[in-house]
From TrEMBL:
Lineage: Eukaryota, Metazoa, Ecdysozoa, Arthropoda, Hexapoda
Family annotation (PANTHER family): FATTY ACID SYNTHASE, FATTY ACID SYNTHASE 3
Presence of keyword Transferase: yes
InterPro entries: Ac_transferase_dom_sf, Acyl_transferase_dom, Acyl_Trfase/lysoPLipase, Ketoacyl_synth_AS, Ketoacyl_synth_C, Ketoacyl_synth_N, PKS_assoc, PKS_Beta-ketoAc_synthase_dom
Alphabetical keyword list: Phosphopantetheine, Phosphoprotein, Transferase
Stored PROSITE patterns: KS3_1 (PS00606), KS3_2 (PS52004)
UniProt name for this protein: Fatty acid synthase-like
Length: 457
């Protein structure tokens, strides 16, 4: 009616719309190779980074089952399971269940990345080409060729592969062809069975976004140290020798992840094949992410609704303090985010408070001036600066005060950290102690401290 239907609903413009919104100008396009779309997009992003066409890449995929007509066509094609379960590699496999998903990953060059979940070692794609059985019939020959070329080109030995996340749709033809390709290309000279699985048994087949769902599963395994179990597998597919002889082993229970290389298969039903090799990030968090001090952490967040802010704060408070995660939150919320009308904060990691201090408020967009209101004499107590001195920025300010006062015979650091109750019997200690605390709370440059100290003396 208004003329914007084509621009709002055009699949060709989806990536361009995101580039438009974010104001980014690198390569921007939509890929459609059916079930291998999102993994193929990841491979393209990897190539763009390798060729210096961009410094970072946003790779996303989505699948929404909005119209029953599509499901009807897949059912007529014979690829949907009658009981709504994807039984990949099982002898009773009869197809898959369609599912919805939206997944986005962010790729950067390692030198620029602040947080690395996994490293993309290599990616490669090919196409089945002509097949006598028809365009939708998978080709173990071309899948195997893709695997052999991929590992030869990236210099990773197939025997070093720790796990293979298969395409594994649970179709009568697809699973055997994929296992045959894996057996011929990967299992030769291996001393232990190759662990395999398919995320489609856990969540169904999200079709074009399934490749990124596979990546998400692998990242979960790397982060938690456990490979999620493959569901609905009871009896190996008859006639598939690699399964029957144990050269490949389906992960049927949560299995420890010990690091290393992972291969990910994704195949389009028109013959567009893609394979990605990932490697777990071996750098361990210092002190497992725990702070090296006992200081509480202030975390500020924003959101579109009060509920979204509280959900964020609840999640922060229920986990142990992770300094890398706290820094990530600081980075995200360091600038104003359009449409975020609510603000909130929490103080976590306190050794004295029974529960975190928190508050959530509506933000009206007005920048209010900050005022520091301090009390006068009588607010001092022995050791009142001990905890504050643990904060580097505060300690640095006190050291500037000390540089001014020490030539006058006043040891301000001792005054603030000495627990001797007689310290403040000297009224001068009270004056300079209180003033130094106040000055250090607002200090931005030397001018303030010199003016304040001159006023006191």
């Amino acid at each position: 009616v208004n003329g914007f239907g084509i621009t709002g609903c055009s699949r060709a413009m989806l990536a361009n719309r995101i580039s438009y919104w974010l104001g980014v100008t690198g390569p921007s396009y939509t890929l459609d190779s059916a079930c291998s779309s999102s993994l193929l997009a990841l491979e393209h992003a990897y190539r763009c980074l390798q060729d210096d066409l961009c410094d970072a890449a946003i790779v996303g995929g989505s699948n929404l089952c909005l119209h029953p007509f599509v499901s009807l066509q897949f059912s007529r094609l014979g690829v949907l399971s009658r009981d709504g379960r994807c039984k990949a590699f099982d002898n009773d496999a009869d197809g898959y269940a369609r599912s919805e998903a939206i997944v986005v990953v962010f790729l950067q060059k390692a030198k620029n990345a602040k947080r690395i979940y996994a490293r993309v070692v290599y990616g490669k794609s090919n196409c089945d080409g002509y097949k006598e059985q028809g365009i939708t019939f998978p080709s173990s020959t071309m899948q195997g060729e893709l695997l052999r070329e991929c590992y030869e080109e990236c210099g990773v030995s197939p025997k070093d592969l720790s796990y293979m996340e298969c395409h594994g749709t649970g179709t009568k033809v697809g699973d055997p062809e994929e296992i045959i390709a894996i057996d011929k290309a990967i299992c030769k000279n291996r001393t232990a069975p190759l662990l395999i699985g398919s995320v489609k048994t856990n969540m169904g087949h999200s079709e074009p976004v399934s490749g990124l769902c596979q990546v998400a599963k692998i990242l979960i395994a790397m982060e938690t140290g456990l490979i999620p179990a493959n569901l609905h597998y009871n009896r190996p597919r008859e006639g598939v020798k690699a399964l029957e002889d144990g050269r490949v082993k389906v992960v049927t229970e949560s299995t420890p992840w010990n690091g290393g290389y992972v291969g990910i298969n994704s195949f389009g039903f028109g013959g567009a094949n893609c394979h990605i090799v990932l490697k777990s990030h071996e750098k361990e968090k210092l002190n497992k992410g725990a702070p090296s001090d006992d200081l509480p952490r202030l975390v500020t967040v924003s959101g579109r609704t009060e509920e979204s802010v509280n959900v964020f704060l609840n999640d922060i408070e229920k986990h142990a303090v992770d300094v890398e995660y706290i820094r990530l939150l600081h980075d995200i919320h360091s600038e104003d985010i359009q449409g975020h009308l609510y603000r909130g904060y929490t103080i976590v990691g306190s050794k004295t408070a029974e529960r975190p201090t928190r508050e959530t408020e509506n933000y009206l967009g007005t920048v209010r001036p900050i005022w520091f209101v301090f009390s006068g004499m009588g607010s001092q107590w022995p050791g009142m600066g001990i905890e504050l001195m643990k904060f580097p920025i505060f300690a640095k300010a006190i050291q500037k005060c000390d540089a001014v006062l020490r030539p006058r015979g006043i040891d301000i650091i001792n005054i603030l950290t000495n627990k001797d109750k007689s310290t403040f019997d000297n009224i001068l200690h009270s004056f300079v102690g209180i003033a130094a605390i106040q000055v250090s709370c607002v200090l931005h440059n030397n001018t303030y401290i010199l003016l304040s100290i001159n006023f006191i003396l």
